[in-house]
Every structure is written in structure tokens, then in C-alpha cells.
Design brief:
Layout (H helix, E strand, L loop, with lengths): L1 E5 L4 H13 L8 E9 L3 E8 L2 E5 L9 H12 L4 H4 L17 E3 L1
Length: 108
């Protein structure tokens, strides 16, 4: 398995990188096995997208509050053809965990 890490300082830069991966054919919606969002105080928000042969990890995205990070996550999920009712949940404060430990998620 190939591991690819994309650390970006902002959601805008992370979206640009993600879009380039889709346009270059390196990341295809039909090949995705899982999408996982994790949070730790040390690493903050990490978005991991896994295919059968590669794993892509991104910074610059977030979830479960309103802001640029969750809206960026909604945009990439739209590009990956995830249904709208699922995308909308990522800006819902009800799913946010403790102030210092937001909840993680996984889509399979």
C-alpha cells in the first residue's frame, strides 16, 4: 500500500490539492474503500481516504461545527458523490464531542 500525506496550512490549499488529485486520476470515487476523520490534541484533524492500493491523508479539513474546515469537507464529499444528507451532518454541532475532543467518523 502506498501512503500519501498532504499537510496544508488552510482549507483552501487542501481543496486545491484534492481537486488536482481527482483531475490527475490519482483519486477516483469508485475506488474508495473508506473515508475516516480522526481528531487528537497532538495531531488535530486528519482526514484519511483509503482505496485498495493507496491511503491519502489530509490536513486542512474539519467536521461537526460551522466554518471553513467543515465546508471544505462537504465540498470534497460532493466531488466524491456522497449523498447530501450525509454531507450536511458534518456541520451539525449536535455531533461535536467535548470541546477539546471532537468526535471522529468513518464512512465505508
Amino acid at each position: 500500500m502506498k501512503y500519501r500525506y498532504y499537510r496544508r496550512p488552510s482549507t483552501r490549499k487542501a481543496l486545491q490539492t484534492f481537486r488536482r488529485l481527482i483531475e490527475a486520476g490519482k483519486l477516483r470515487a469508485g475506488e474508495i474503500v473508506s473515508i475516516r476523520g480522526t481528531f487528537t490534541n497532538k495531531r488535530w484533524y486528519r482526514l484519511t481516504i483509503r482505496t485498495k492500493t493507496e491511503q491519502f491523508q489530509f490536513t486542512g479539513f474539519a467536521w461537526f461545527y460551522s466554518g471553513e474546515g467543515p465546508r471544505g469537507l462537504q465540498q470534497i464529499l460532493k466531488w466524491l458523490l456522497i449523498p447530501e444528507e450525509i454531507r450536511e451532518r458534518f456541520i451539525d454541532h449536535d455531533f461535536h464531542g467535548d470541546t477539546f475532543i471532537p468526535n471522529s467518523f468513518i464512512l465505508r
